[in-house]
Design brief:
The protein is of the alpha/beta class. Helix content is 39%, strand content 23%. The chain has helices spanning 3-15, 18-25, 29-43, 59-85, 106-116, 130-140, 203-214, 228-236, 246-249, 281-291, and strands spanning 48-50, 55-57, 91-97, 120-126, 145-150, 159-167, 169-174, 194-197, 220-224, 241-245, 255-258, 267-274, 294-295, 301-302. It has a five-stranded mixed beta sheet with strand order 4-3-5-12-6, with helices on both faces. Strands 9-8-10-7-11 form a five-stranded mixed beta sheet. Strands 1-2 form a two-stranded antiparallel sheet. Strand 8, helix 7 and strand 9 form a beta-alpha-beta unit.
Length: 311
């Protein structure tokens, strides 16, 4: 097994295409095909199911991918040591984002990173399927680090995660709704109400669905919002109720936050990487910058020694 074979394998796994992998690697497609075929002969397994329409990992390929990524990370780590002694940090960091992610000034963090580390390519992409999409991206090696908005303690064991913030949620009620003048409600009173929520796969949606299901209460979601701010807008216009971060509805004249007795719909914002992958020097630098651009839900600035808070 050669390092070049693993590099080509990872590229095909990421691109889901031999042609696109060859372009990414700046080699001819036949070289990629030959390297993968040789690797499959060495391992005595089939790594990809090939068809005219798509290229997908087999079970063996899926098992190999995190190990191949770990090898590539180790090689990058060796390069980092040399680069830090010579021309400076290099490489690529790919970040998976949540739609409408608040509580962090990502443009400022990205701008500062680019100014400090001009030879590192920073790639930011939004995962439309929320935390579930980020987890898939980490497993597949499509991203190096990602944000997760999930219930505390529910991060998959295959990931290393750092908790950035705890985010309390409230029942957001339009001022014209029958429950708007209530001091509190119980969960049963929300049965069959119209709700604004996020699509399945978002951590907060999973948390809320589980609470209602455990109580044996039906819930009708009439809008799947694109992000927190978008969800607030739908509630403000009376389309439905929402269970939203308290900071997002604070000061909203047309929305009242009503406590739900006995329920705490709280989730945590995490940064996560695949446990088998050792963070590169560039990734560690980004993690450090992220902490300087956090905003606590009460509006205060928050800085953390992120790499020292491993869960």
């Amino acid at each position: 097994m050669e390092l070049r074979q693993l590099e080509y394998f990872v590229a095909v796994a990421h691109e889901r295409s031999f042609t696109l992998a060859a372009r990414r690697l700046h080699v001819v497609q036949s070289a990629v095909s030959a390297a993968i075929a040789s690797l499959e002969r060495d391992l005595k397994v089939t790594l990809f199911e090939r068809s005219a329409q798509r290229v997908v990992l087999t079970e063996a390929g899926t098992a190999l991918l995190p190990e191949a990524l770990a090898v590539m990370d180790a090689v990058q780590g060796a390069r980092d040591v040399v680069d830090e002694l010579g021309s400076g940090m290099r490489g690529t960091v790919r970040v998976g984002l949540l739609p409408g992610l608040g509580l962090i000034d990502l443009p400022a963090a990205a701008g500062e990173f680019r100014r400090r580390y001009q030879n590192v390519e920073l790639q930011l992409r939004v995962e439309p399927e929320g935390s579930a999409g980020v987890i898939v991206g980490l497993r597949n090696g499509d991203i190096d680090v990602g944000f997760l908005g999930v219930r505390a303690g529910s991060v998959p064991r295959e990931l290393t995660a750092w908790e950035l913030l705890k985010v309390p949620q409230v029942l957001a009620v339009p001022t014209g709704h029958r429950l708007a003048r209530r001091r509190s409600v119980v969960l049963a009173e929300l049965a069959d109400e119209a709700f604004v929520d996020f699509p399945p796969g978002f951590g907060s949606r999973t948390l809320i669905d589980q609470r209602f299901e455990a109580a044996g209460i039906g819930r009708r979601v009439v809008v799947e919002a694109l992000g927190i701010d978008n969800g607030v807008q739908f509630v403000r216009h009376g389309v439905g109720l929402g269970i939203l971060p308290g900071y997002a509805v604070a000061g909203e004249e047309k929305i009242r936050a009503v406590p739900v007795t006995g329920e705490a719909f709280q989730w945590s914002l995490y940064l996560a990487t695949l446990r088998k992958r050792k963070p590169s020097a560039a990734l560690r630098a980004l993690l450090g910058l992220v902490t300087t651009h956090l905003q606590h839900p009460d509006g205060t600035e928050l800085g953390l020694a992120l790499m020292d808070q491993q869960n």
